């Protein structure tokens, strides 16, 4: 008999599938993001760099305890020991739209801070239903992504989501968190633990985020 790979089935599917099925509002999406950030913080506490964070590598477990996001697909993961920065021969590791500038340009290997850039892209996917470097309603195009990345453009801009940000306090607060994740200087990005704090505060009081990342 040929060997078989048996995988656990998660009823909720990916965040995109879960949101399509359940029509989540802004606050419910933010609650989901808190759980995702807690998952990233957990793997970083265990000295693991994921290397391929994106919405399709997160699944939603539905249990008696509630809705629990799970970070999956550790095929690109490495141990983050003693500040090591891991470079991959194959740049296809890590889906291109989610890769941080320093990794994409060869200035650095994968680190927890490059994971945080990708986490910002996941937040964009969940809160705004948008793929990085793709305007809402557009079909993702790799050539457009390459062009925008060569021009040092961010995966999205505030103007892409007006007037929503002016009308939705939760969306405004979450957009501010994304901005922290997309700092071009990796050392200025929040840790995963700080990201959890930011998102929790956004959930309880979005105005707290205007003063910066809690330390």
Automatic annotation (TrEMBL):
<feature type="domain" description="Protein kinase">
    <location>
        <begin position="1"/>
        <end position="204"/>
    </location>
</feature>
<protein>
    <recommendedName>
        <fullName>Protein kinase domain-containing protein</fullName>
    </recommendedName>
</protein>
<dbReference type="GO" id="GO:0005524">
    <property type="term" value="F:ATP binding"/>
</dbReference>
<dbReference type="InterPro" id="IPR051681">
    <property type="entry name" value="Ser/Thr_Kinases-Pseudokinases"/>
</dbReference>
<dbReference type="Pfam" id="PF00069">
    <property type="entry name" value="Pkinase"/>
</dbReference>
<dbReference type="GO" id="GO:0004674">
    <property type="term" value="F:protein serine/threonine kinase activity"/>
</dbReference>
<dbReference type="InterPro" id="IPR000719">
    <property type="entry name" value="Prot_kinase_dom"/>
</dbReference>
<dbReference type="InterPro" id="IPR008271">
    <property type="entry name" value="Ser/Thr_kinase_AS"/>
</dbReference>
<dbReference type="InterPro" id="IPR011009">
    <property type="entry name" value="Kinase-like_dom_sf"/>
</dbReference>
């Amino acid at each position: 008999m040929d060997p078989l790979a048996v995988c656990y089935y998660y009823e909720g599917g990916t965040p995109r599938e879960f949101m399509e099925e359940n029509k989540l509002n802004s606050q419910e999406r933010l609650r989901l993001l808190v759980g995702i950030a807690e998952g990233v913080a957990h793997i970083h506490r265990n000295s693991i760099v994921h290397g391929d964070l994106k919405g399709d590598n997160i699944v939603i477990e539905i249990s008696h305890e509630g809705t629990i996001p799970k970070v999956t697909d550790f095929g690109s993961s490495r141990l983050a020991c003693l500040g090591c920065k891991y470079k991959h021969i194959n740049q296809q590791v890590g889906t291109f739209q989610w890769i941080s500038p320093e990794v994409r340009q060869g200035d650095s290997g994968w680190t927890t801070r490059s994971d945080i850039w990708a986490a910002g892209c996941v937040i964009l996917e969940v809160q705004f239903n948008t793929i990085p470097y793709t305007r809402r309603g557009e079909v993702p195009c790799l050539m457009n992504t390459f062009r925008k990345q060569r021009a040092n453009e961010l995966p999205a801009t505030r103007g892409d989501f007006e007037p929503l940000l002016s009308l939705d306090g939760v969306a405004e607060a979450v957009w501010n968190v994304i901005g922290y994740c997309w700092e071009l200087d990796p050392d200025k990005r929040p840790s995963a633990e700080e990201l959890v704090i930011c998102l929790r505060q956004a959930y309880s009081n979005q105005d707290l985020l205007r003063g910066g990342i809690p330390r």
